[in-house]
Design a protein that fits this description.
The chain has one domain (15-152). It has five helices and no strands. The chain has helices spanning 3-6, 26-43, 49-74, 82-112, 119-152. The longest helix is centred in the last third of the chain and has 34 residues, at 119-152. It is a multi-pass membrane protein. This is Myelin and lymphocyte protein.
Amino acid sequence: MAPAAASGGSTLPSGFSVFTTFPDLLFIFEFVFGGLVWILVASSLVPWPLIQGWVMFVSVFCFVATTTLIVLYIIGAHGGETSWVTLDAAYHCTAALFYLSASVLEALAAITIQEGFIYRHYHENIAAVVFSYVATLLYVVHAVFSLIRWKSS
């Protein structure tokens, strides 16, 4: 299968075909796992507020941006222009980098609270780390296939 065919062609989908083409299908999973990270970090106890602030910023920013992109793709706001393909690739590369940094910092915070905190808070942080790394993986895969689509457009 050619790279352009594997990435759903060189144009962005419109309407509900967003939910049937790859890599745009990953929007759904990015939305779900990003929301889980947001909820878990918001409810967890982290010893360093700066780390929690960064992880919250990344999860909320990516959640809102992903939701915005899904809505814009569904209503067809891109009109088939190649500048939107560039925007899609740039956003997913940035989101992948942001989520990677947030995941590493959240894992560091979870390691440091292993002793001296309530067991439930430790488990919430571990769950946030796991979902954060899953979201990172989703954004990286989406970024790679968005870059392939960008190169072929």
